[in-house]
Amino acid sequence: MTLGIYIHVPFCGRKCGYCNFYSVRYSGKSAQLYTDAVIRNLEYYSDKSTLTDTVYFGGGTPSLLKTEQIESILSGIKNNFLLSQNAEITLEANPRTLNPQKLEILRSIGINRISFGVQSMIDDELEILGRSHNAQQAVKAVYDAYNAGFENISCDLMTAVPKQTAESLEYSIEKLSQLPIKHMSSYILKIEENTPFYTGNIKSLLPDEEQTAEFYLRTVELLGKYGFYQYEISNFAKQGFESRHNTRYWKCMDYIGIGSSAHSCYKGKRFAVPDDINKFIGNKIQPVEITDENPCGFEEYSMLRLRLKEGLDLRKFPEKKISVEKKIPPLVNSGYAVYDGNTISLTPKGFLMSNSIISYLIF
């Protein structure tokens, strides 16, 4: 059993119109107070009995923090947890927030994986999405990271964005695949309530449902062609470069989340921190709400495992195997799933309908 640590950094230079994650505008004073609060909580959750092998700085835009602040947080982790020598330590970044010097410092203090929020290699699409960078800046950021010594670089790609065409999507995939990266996360744009995109006219510019499905399947096909194999609904990697931290979530492994809006699954419970930076900074220990007293039962475990290409091994739940097996043949016959007698996994076509399929199989 190992442990992962998630640090939520809520600061953004500006909020994108589609984003529904908790974030606040960056200020130097708030960033320092927030860093201090993170370190206090690392001391509170100190656990030197379990090997910590993944650390993830997510956001928000964690790359807005000063390198000294990131180093202080890493020191807090090393002082309070049993950090593996080969731990995967990821920092999410906006391409505009990093330069060669900062990247070299980040690599030297222990960050060994960078995840860039690129989203598209088409400037018009980036502008509609409200991104602050352009395609050229994204390319430069990736090469700067590579030249600074980062071998494990990931880029986000968004599909079904306003005005996107099959040709523009293929162009983005091709250009990203030519960069020295090892991982891609590809997400279908979802318009969330309480976002500017939800109330504006953006919906009229989106591809329809059929086009969205075609874009997804084409993305899977092309990324496979370029050597990025699909290991999860939205994630693709060169062999051996799967996101070890995110895989924790899908395998119901323990992780501690620190920061406003961070979630945890630790010591048999799920708990979450409120979406309130002032409460996080103002309290000695972060306030939490228990969200699940008994997580990772059959339904939740199955739902998460079926997100993974490796699928759900029914031998783990022998009492459920027969009832689930009865429902599998139609899925296999329709090309939505494969089954080897023990493990069921979804195909790309099945991933498109994963919510319905999982509900049909499990509930």
| End-to-end distance | 29 Å
Mean pLDDT equals 96
The name of the CATH superfamily of the largest domain reads Aldolase class I
CATH class of the largest domain: Alpha Beta
* Main sheet makeup: 9 strands, mixed
Strands, count: 17
Strand order of the largest sheet: 9-10-8-7-6-5-4-1-11
Give the number of domains.
Answer: 2
CATH fold descriptor of the largest domain? TIM Barrel
Question: Helical content, roughly?
Answer: 25-40%
**Structural class based on helices, strands and sheet pairing:** alpha/beta
Radius of gyration: 21 Å
Instruction: Characterize the overall form.
Output: globular
Count of alpha/pi helices = 15
Strand proportion, as a percent range, falls in 25-35%
Give start-end ranges of low-pLDDT stretches.
none
CATH-level-2 architecture of the largest domain: Alpha-Beta Barrel
Question: What does this 3D model show about the protein?
Answer:
The relative contact order is 0.11. The chain is of the alpha/beta class and 363 residues long. α1 (28-44) packs parallel to α2, α2 packs parallel to α3 (100-109) and α6 (166-177) runs parallel beside α8 (209-225). It has two domains: 2-249, Aldolase class I (TIM Barrel), CATH 3.20.20.70; 310-362, no CATH class. The protein has a nine-stranded mixed β-sheet, sandwiched between helices. A three-stranded antiparallel β-sheet has the order 12-13-14, with no helix packed on it. Strands 15-17-16 form a three-stranded antiparallel β-sheet. It is globular and about 60 Å long. The model has no long low-confidence stretch (mean pLDDT 96). The protein has helices at 28-44, 67-80, 100-109, 123-129, 135-147, 166-177, 196-199, 209-225, 244-250, 277-282, 298-305, 318-325, 328-333, 348-351, 354-362, and strands spanning 2-9, 11-12, 24-25, 47-59, 81-93, 113-119, 152-159, 183-188, 229-232, 235-237, 255-258, 263-266, 269-272, 289-292, 312-313, 337-339, 343-346.
